Amino acid sequence: xxxxxxxxxxxxxxxxxxxxxxxxxxxxxxxxxxxxxxxxxxxxxxxxxxxxxxxxxxxxxxxxxxxxxxxxxxxxxxxxxxxxxxxxxxxxxxxxxxxxxxxxxxxxxxxxxxxxxxxxxxxxxxxxxxxxxxxxxxxxxxxxxxxxxxxxxxxxxxxxxxxxxxxxxxxxxxxxxxxxxxxxxxxxxxxxxxxxxxxxxxxxxxxxxxxxxxxxxxxxxxxxxxxxxxxxxxxxxxxxxxxxxxxxxxxxxxxxxxxxxxxxxxxxxxxxxxxxxxxxxxxxxxxxxxxx
Length: 292
Fold this sequence. Notes:
- By secondary structure, the protein is α/β, with parallel strands linked by helices.
- 41% of the residues lie in helices and 15% in strands.
- The chain contains twelve helices and seven strands.
- Strands 3-2-1-4-5-7-6 form a seven-stranded mixed beta sheet, sandwiched between helices.
- Helix 3 (57-66) links the parallel strand 2 (49-54) and strand 3 (74-78).
- Helix 1 crosses helix 2.
- It is globular and about 60 Å long.
């Protein structure tokens, strides 16, 4: 299903860090629906170039349509940012990694990213990979499920929920998000967020191996920067942000040529939060390669 409009998060702040220029080459390593990429290409007119990659084929298709007006200045490929190390690319003047799940993936993909719709328990960003969320729920041991819910979702009821999943799958294998929501239940959840929120996050991270891929992506992106180039990372939960923070700090300590632009992450303004409430958890960190 082709995706629709995309409202990029922290757009002005990201452009402020990247500082696109007409002679630059940029990589949007999670091009999504092309909102950030479009702005980078506009800001680097008339001759700035951009490579946009995304592991979601539907998102890559939508971005290709959105960026068609830029002609050869924009090249789109279906890939994961962890693949950057294997690509033969020129040094980049800016790299963006937007780690969030788009509204389109939540609402239109039909892959079970959201607990608000009864859909197949898929959750694969790249449908060509093998393991689905249903596979995780139906085959992981109870102890391993508990670990997934606790470590990837910071779920306080991880043991209780893993037990409920193990009990239910004995008679009814998991196939849909509705089944999982019912297994999670409401008792003892508390808090302002839906009780299934952390469980869905944890499953998505496990299915897509997101933290491992992020580590590989950072390892590939940092040495891929041109002199004066900046790596911007938009994260949406504490596991990602903590990983990015310490990776940047370690790189800056190891090599003084790398400069952390802001010690504390940039977060959305009140105006952006009013326009796009889903941006509330976004954090932007930036690392610049300045060997002079």
